[in-house]
Amino acid sequence: MYKNYINGKWQDAKCGKTFTKLNPATGEEVGKFPLSEPEDVNDAVASAKKAFKGWSRTPLPTRGDIMLKLGNLMLKNKEELARIETQDMGKVLKETRGDVQEGIDTAYYAFGEARRFFGKTVPSELPDKICMTFHRPIGVAGLISPWNFPAAIPCWKMIPALLSGNTVVFKPSREAPATAAKLVELLIEAGIPEGVVNIIHGAGTNVGEAIATHPDISVISFTGSVPVGKRLAEISGKSLKRISLELGGKNGQIVMDDADLELALEGALWGAFGTTGQRCTATSRVILHKAIHDKFVDMLVKRANKIKIGYGLDESMEMGPCVSEKQRDIVAKYVDIGKKEGAKLACGGEPYTEGNCKNGFFYRPTIFTGVTPDMRIAKEEIFGPVLSVLKVNDLDEAIKVINDTEYGLSSSVYIKDVNNAMKAVAEIEAGITYINAPTIGAECHLPFGGVKNTGNGHREGGWTVYEVFNETQTVYIDYSAKLQRAQIDTTVTLK
Ligand code: UN1
Questions:
Q1: Residues 229 and 255 in one domain
Q2: Residues pairing with 435 in the sheet
Q3: Is 280 a catalytic residue?
Q4: Are residues 15 and 84 in the same domain?
Q5: Ligand 1, atom 3: nearest CA belongs to which residue?
Q6: Active-site hit among 37, 85, 209, 246
Q7: Which atom of ligand 1 is nearest to 279's Cα?
Q8: CA atoms within 13 A of residue 255's CA, in its CB half-sphere
Q9: Are residues 263 and 198 both part of a single domain?
């Protein structure tokens, strides 16, 4: 029986209710978790608010040391964390190890940042006066994370929030709660003081909304769907909370006629079927130049049919299940839609129930050809192992097609001509563009996020996420010992 962690104590939801998390590969129970209510959020926020003064005044390098310890503990427990994660949400071990590594890298980045958290010194327009800026923590951060990267994404959010001096109320997804619980245990072992981190398990409609409405939460970071992101932005906008939204994607991989096709094939398979297609960066469209279309589709289908599907704890498996029965039903619904829209099913298109897989929520790698930009399977995020193939005449059309979506997270172009590659980089509307690499695989020390309905202008990762979790304080120091009036007593005049 798992618990919430509030004010330094593990405790049940006050109402006593729980939910059961199932292993998506076996249908077995992972554990029972508190089904919390707004009253639990209130306690967590009160605890985080109380802890803010002490934590925000702790020297940054001391906070950084805790992040270093967290990174070291994650490294020491990497295998255990990866195995918990595979049972929690289904990704194969190779991938859950990578996910944990992304969290470790984020912790080490924060440790380095702690000793270089630079503000700026800026010349004044007046004599004997200096100006500078400081980063200041905002207060209590409400962090709402998804299930598809249950170690990396909570780390992307918690680590910069904490390093910056904020305290945290963390609500993990109901589909990956065991990984989140383990992460919080490691944070406690790393020495995070009481009240600084609080975890509340439960439903988005209850806990998530309570976070967005709570007057003592000052900043929210959310990764998830567009409808939920819009809802949270609407609620939190009423109290002018800062909110960083990381929402969906309908990412495309263009393959031009001069591309290295073997390389493009590896990229498309990894991008489309890695994590069972359940990444917001997943390749859900390949946009093929007509000259290589038929050959590439042939290569793609042959290889997709050979992907080894099964329980991720078995090292030989390449693709795990969908995260839940509900998620698999969504995939099946889109496959029906694709067929009705007139796309051709080139492979897959049904659940995978062979051998031990019958109790899990597996679905075969699925490829639709003959997809046109107006079809729903070309436009809507599916979040499953479904790839739509579109055929184009030239690069201009490929760019038009790749941009023809409400989203703008990741994008990829396989190409050799350097001029055309640079043209694509300039014209693609996306937060992330890869040349000769798949749409997935962002590194934690670079900005991560998208344009259009993928977000609201913020970026996670690297130095940019620190903008989300900090206010800027501008300080002027006048040592002239007289009143100097800016804009009036200035010595600079342009003739
Ligand atoms: C996500 O799917 O929400 O770039 C995050 C990638 C990973 C992160 C994905 N490093 O695919």
A1: no
A2: 413
A3: yes
A4: yes
A5: 280
A6: 246
A7: 2
A8: 28
A9: no
pLDDT digit string (tens) for 42-74? Answer: 999 999 999 999 999 999 999 999 999 999 999
Helix axes 152-163, 93-113, angle to 10 degrees: 10
The reply to whether 312 and 221 lie within a common domain is no
Residues enclosing ligand 1, CB less than 6 A? 102, 148-149, 223, 279-281, 440-442
Atom nearest to 440 CA in ligand 1: 11
Q: What is the CATH number of the domain that holds 236?
A: 3.40.605.10
pLDDT tens digits, one per residue of 181-229: 999 999 999 999 999 999 999 999 999 999 999 999 999 999 999 999 9
Is residue 131 annotated as a catalytic residue, yes or no? no
Range of the domain at 220: 4-247+455-475
Tell me if 440 is assigned to some domain.
Answer: no
What is the best residue among 155, 247, 448, 459 to mutate for testing ligand 1's pocket, by most ligand atoms within 8 Å of CB?
448
Q: Please give the distance, rounded to the nearest whole angstrom, from the Cα atom of residue 340 to the centre of ligand 1.
A: 31
* Core vs surface per residue 34-63: b (16+ CB within 10 A) or e: bbbbbebbebbbbbbbebbeebbeeebeeb
Tens of pLDDT, residue by residue over 433-481, are 999 999 999 999 999 999 999 999 999 999 999 999 999 999 999 999 9
* Residue 155: count of CB within 10 angstroms of its CB: 28
